Amino acid sequence: MAMDIVEELLKGNVLALSRAITAIENEYDNASEIMAKLYPHTGHAFVLGITGPPGAGKSTLTDKLAKAYRAQGKTVGIIAIDPTSPFTGGAILGDRIRMNSLTLDDGVFIRSMGTRGSLGGLSHKTADAVKAMDAFGKDVIFVETVGVGQSEVDIVKAADTTMVVLIPGMGDDIQAIKAGILEIGDVFTINKADHEGADKLVREMNMMLDLNGMMMDWRPPIQKVIANQGEGIKETIENVTNHFKHIEANGVLAERRTKRTRNEILDVLNTSIGKHITKNLVATGDLDKYVEQIKNHETDPYTVVASVMKKMLK
Ligand SMILES: Nc1nc2c(ncn2[C@@H]2O[C@H](COP(=O)(O)OP(=O)(O)O)[C@@H](O)[C@H]2O)c(=O)[nH]1
Ligand SMILES: [Mg+2]
Fold first, then answer.
1. Of the chain's two ends, which shows fewer C-beta atoms within 10 Å, N or C?
2. In this predicted model, what pLDDT tens digit does every residue of 29-48 receive, in sequence order?
3. Does any ligand 1 atom lie closer than 6 A to the CB of residue 56?
4. Which domains are assigned to the chain?
């Protein structure tokens, strides 16, 4: 039984959506074809990136926000990225428990993507998984990712609006991640406002944003939240909605999407060229030949690559 994944996905078959994302994640041969067929059906979903340090309450917050969107009658997709675990276990299992109440709602689709030890290619895979959910018909898609390093910045580039979640008591950590969060945060959430130091953190964030914000036409709002008690959720949704409306009106959304498409072409191109050359190198036995030559100190990897490139691009 060969099920037509794309046809079934577009009909609303959850298993097909699941399989499509598995194909994307594992780079199966049919992944490109699936994406090509899904592409015309994308572009309707609102994509919300949620990032911040581990344990900040991102999953708890996602659970509450997702429920609020469901109450508005919107369908929800959630992609939880876990760069720490080489397997889709551990923290993801915790996420599942945190989002437990959602798993019974068939208007919500939750998918975790492990990085299997490397973040390479993950931003591209995440973007494709978002598209699969978009084509499936999800109205709002969450991308939850840990941290604010460059890899996470790349991942949240798939988002229309990015929320950075911070918590009190991070001490000097906030200084260290300052540059990263100012660059990517459209909306800030100070979660665990039941803990001491929330107001201080809000003040610090305000100061940072004021210093940074002279030239910005969007001043990222800062909202105190107690996610596990559902406090500040309504305001957070409002902030997110306002941001989306803002970028829709001033053309930034269109700009971001154009940039994304541009990067996508380059990404796919780089990957395909890389794969093509690698395959060829292995199939012809040239790779083994080069390894032998390097072992004998006759050449080095850099010279090898230079000559391979020269040959391939002729
Ligand atoms: N005190 C307090 N704990 C919270 C709050 N929000 C979440 N938590 C708890 O913080 C822990 C980590 O939450 P989680 O959502 O898994 O964080 P994530 O790693 O950012 O996804 C869990 O035990 C939550 O119950 C909050 O507002 N206040
Ligand atoms: Mg989480």
1. N
2. 899 999 999 999 999 999 99
3. yes
4. 43-249 (3.40.50.300), 264-312 (no CATH)
